[in-house]
Amino acid sequence: MSEKQVFTVIEGGSVTTPKGFTAGGLHCGLKKTERNDLAAILCEVPATAAAVYTTNVFQAAPLKVTRESLANGTLQAVIVNSGNANACTGEQGEADAYEMRAAAARELGVNELDVAVASTGVIGELLKMDRVRSGIAGLPEKLDGGAAGAEAFCQAILTTDLVKKECCVKVKAGEVEVTIAGAAKGSGMIHPNMATMLGFMTTDAVIDGGDLLGLLRTATNTTFNMITVDGDTSTNDMLVTMASGLAGNEKLTRLHADWEAFAAAFTHVCKSLAMAIARDGEGATKLIEVQIDGAVHDEAAAAIAKTVIGSSLVKSAIFGADANWGRIIAAVGRAGVPVSPERVDISLGGIEVLRHSRPVAFDEEKALHYLQKSDTVRITVALADGEGKATAWGCDLTYDYVRINAAYRT
């Protein structure tokens, strides 16, 4: 069943579209510019919640606090700042994250253990807590259930991002329409493993916590875990989902007749956000999509796809509009999974450049035009080794990426 048959994208929808959610943001002074840098999402009731996190062993203080809050399986609010990651900040950093949770709970009128904390920005610097305290005190009046609140929230979580990332869909669960939405930030230091940079999803569906966590993990594996910008996994990666249950549907479980439709809608939101992150990679000019077919199994296909999309040589070739299939097949060959070296086909946007691991004559001018003019470059690799398939997304590697990251802290 196609995506269009099971759910509908809500144009202009946001994290405040599902029933029960408000959001907002403001500038408290963590960023040098006047852009928003502190935000919150609030649910009017304790929501069933789940999260996935970075696997980087150096985990920022907010992750410890959020894990503790989620131990009971519910959340009612998320407090998030940009401009400072609060990572590698020792005992003081942990104390500051706990203070953020306590202050948000007090100002928003919720249980402290129902508040998640997230931070993003420069690593190794202590938060300016006087500014954070003042900002949290001003957040309640900024919360809004409409587009303005969602916009302020999205702007507040950005760092080097050029654009906000959000998606919203609706899907039927029995006779009831439920809504799923998400917002994310991420542009650099992107190579997630069980998480993304920062992501926040809301839904008004009635769903068990275990089923929500399982769905989140499954969807993450085929979306957020299949993107890369620069091969770096952050200390702060986190994806949090809250389900208010206010749609009033019959509880969704894996045995529900509409579970597959709900899962498809949920996964679409994750995929949309993940692709938006890849497209907005620091300095990027193009989104790159790598599709692997015919691997020995899906896991092998995923490993190959991520190796190709993460190759600096492949990314550089795409930036330079060079149809250099040699960069691609070399990446395929070093992915560490079984591949028959004599049966690989490669195409660039439908232009076949390799057949059975041998070069074929192709129109160089046509390939050049495709690579220069397309804002999305699709690389297809067919292996003929099995039924495994996977798709990964990334971006080209440009001069601007080096410029941005050479002076990120200063």
UniProtKB/TrEMBL annotation:
Primary location recorded for the protein, binned into one broad class: cytoplasm
Gene Ontology molecular function terms on file: L-glutamate N-acetyltransferase activity; L-glutamate N-acetyltransferase activity, acting on acetyl-L-ornithine as donor
Subcellular location: Cytoplasm
Keyword vocabulary terms for this entry: Acyltransferase, Amino-acid biosynthesis, Arginine biosynthesis, Autocatalytic cleavage, Cytoplasm, Multifunctional enzyme, Transferase
Primary enzyme class: transferase
Site (Involved in the stabilization of negative charge on the oxyanion by the formation of the oxyanion hole): 120-121
SUPFAM superfamilies documented for this protein: DmpA/ArgJ-like
HAMAP family: ArgJ
Alphabetical list of NCBIfam families matching this protein: ArgJ, PRK05388.1
Role noted for this protein: Catalyzes two activities which are involved in the cyclic version of arginine biosynthesis: the synthesis of N-acetylglutamate from glutamate and acetyl-CoA as the acetyl donor, and of ornithine by transacetylation between N(2)-acetylornithine and glutamate.
Record note on quaternary structure: Heterotetramer of two alpha and two beta chains.
The name this protein goes by in its record: Arginine biosynthesis bifunctional protein ArgJ
Organism of origin: Paenibacillus graminis
